[in-house]
Write a structure and sequence with these properties.
By secondary structure, this protein is mainly β. About 0% of the residues lie in helices and about 40% in strands. Strands 1-6-7-8-11-10-9-12 form an 8-stranded antiparallel β-barrel. One of its GO terms (molecular function) is copper ion binding. InterPro entries: SOD-like_Cu/Zn_dom_sf (IPR036423), SOD_Cu/Zn_/chaperone (IPR024134), SOD_Cu_Zn_dom (IPR001424). It comes from Hyalella azteca.
């Protein structure tokens, strides 16, 4: 999916008890004010959460919140949330290389692909880590709503492959899942 006419993008941020992260910076409410998520010592047996507030690209009114939960480092990651204001139909849903605060999806770079795999769908044997397929938007009253419910084995909130600080991008069109 080379064209980013995308609707919306937002950076995935880490959440822990007493902490909220923006990008990879973590701000605690107690004196140890500022540390990088990468230098914090958390157990691989500790449940982790992250969230992404979607911000509309210029001239669009799309909004949403995406939540990430991983029980332990070797478990799948559950991705849930809603996106409002998309056109009815399918929209590519990806994690991109960089954070994109402010809705400018071109700032997000390419799909997150630390392993150099080909583009594919979420169920493909070989795919980018960030390839999460399509979400479907349906009419919901005066607006539209897309519900996100994904369980994924490649997306992680642990280690140097963590998706923290990267962007979730909802594209204007359907993703071809690598078949074009």
């Amino acid at each position: 999916m080379g064209k980013c006419i995308g609707y919306t993008a937002g950076a995935i941020t880490f959440m822990a008890i007493g902490a909220l992260a923006t990008g990879l910076a973590l701000y605690f409410t107690y004196p140890e004010a500022r540390r990088s998520v990468q230098t914090l010592t958390y157990s691989d047996e500790e449940m982790r959460f992250a969230t992404c507030e979607l911000v509309a690209a210029p001239n669009f009114t799309v909004k949403g919140t995406i939540y990430f939960r991983q029980n332990v480092s070797y478990d799948t990651t559950v991705i849930t949330g809603t996106v409002e204001g998309l056109t009815v139909g399918e929209h590519g849903f990806h994690i991109h290389e960089f954070g994109a605060n402010g809705g400018r999806c071109k700032d997000a770079g390419k799909h997150y692909n630390p392993d150099g795999q080909p583009h594919g769908g979420q169920d493909s044997d070989q795919r980018h880590v960030g390839d999460l397929g399509n979400i479907r938007s349906v009419e919901q009253g005066a607006s539209t709503l897309a519900r996100v419910q994904i369980e994924d084995a490649l997306v992680t909130l642990y280690g140097d492959r963590a998706v923290l600080g990267r962007a979730v991008v909802v594209h204007a069109g359907r993703d071809d899942l690598g078949f074009s």
